[in-house]
Amino acid sequence: MSGLHHVTAIAGNAQRNFDFYTRTLGLRFVKRTVNFDDPGTYHFYYGDEAGNPGTILTFFPWEHAAAGRGGVGQTHQTSFRVPLSAIGYWTQRFTEHGVAYEPLEKRFGETVLAFSDPDGMSLALIGIPGAENEPAWTAGGIPAEYAIRGFHGVTLLLDSAERTGAILTDVFGFKETGRDGSVIRYTAQGQNNGKEPGSIVDIYEAKGFLAGRQGRGSVHHIAFRAADDAEQAEMARKLVTTHRLRPTEQKDRNYFRSIYFREPGGVLFEIATDIPGFAVDEPVESLGHALKLPSFLESHRAQIEKVLPALGELVS
Ligand code: ZN
């Protein structure tokens, strides 16, 4: 199994982030928890019905975070899959909801509708023929035939694609599948070769560009899938022996187990296990409704609830 597991980004105001992703984009709020390393702040997870790998976008909402600046060494854009026939619907919806979007463009022959979230995060919808036949979570009044079907992928803006591309192909099971101008496409090789959510990593080679600065509206890190601990350990072994990179020790994130490393182009990469998933501490039917804490923070629940900003009703 290969592909993206999740993408984690930095937001400003928590309520504004929550409203945009659940109401405007209609994603499911699959987990309401805190940043385990900074439990006075939220960690929000959005995805499909069950929060399957390849559909999960997560945020650290930091009210006073300074705005980020795009540039080399960063994730340049995060894109979602929608049915090709839904692009017109989304253009109209963005106009009605005051969402900033760009004129339609073509990339690798696909229709791309680029837009930004309220913190300036760079996003896109990619029109996929036939995606209307895939299951979809719907909220915010969005008809099922137009709803988002997980990630298409990410675009990394790097000085050079070579060493990062070697990690994608050698460690994460991607294959170079095309070039369009300065962009090199890598596609996850799995059961469906590129037709599963989160199968695409594009590297936009931009020599001599300014380095980016992480902040509000920036991607913090991207996570790749490992089926289980054994597959993750094998990936770590390859990183050490073949690529001279040393990932961190494993951290238990409750819903998956993770290791991290900085890839040669400057982007923070994570390898997250598919198991145990988001239903480990609440049933799929009620994901996202209650504040969930890892067991080591449960005894501090009252204090944590006092400092977290209140959130409005969950619509779903
Ligand atoms: Zn992560």
Please summarize what this structure is.
With 316 residues, this protein is α+β, with helices and mostly antiparallel strands. The protein has 5 helices and 16 strands.
Account of the protein in words:
The protein is of the alpha+beta class. It has one domain: 2,3-Dihydroxybiphenyl 1,2-Dioxygenase, domain 1. It contains five helices and 16 strands. The protein has an eight-stranded mixed beta sheet. Strand 6 (105-107) and strand 7 (110-116) form a beta hairpin. The two termini are 30 Å apart. The model has no long low-confidence stretch (mean pLDDT 95). Zinc ion binds next to strand 1 and strand 13. Zinc ion (ZN) binds next to strand 1 and strand 13.
Residue share in β-strands: 25-35%
Question: Which topology does CATH recognise?
Answer: 2,3-Dihydroxybiphenyl 1,2-Dioxygenase, domain 1
Q: Largest sheet, if any?
A: 8 strands, mixed
Cα-based radius of gyration, to the nearest Å: 18 Å
Mean pLDDT: 95
Strand order of the largest sheet: 2-3-4-1-13-16-15-14
Low-pLDDT sequence parts:
none
By secondary-structure content and strand pairing, the structural class works out as: alpha+beta
Coarse shape = globular
SSE order, one letter for each helix or strand: EHEEEEHEEEEHEEEEHEEEH
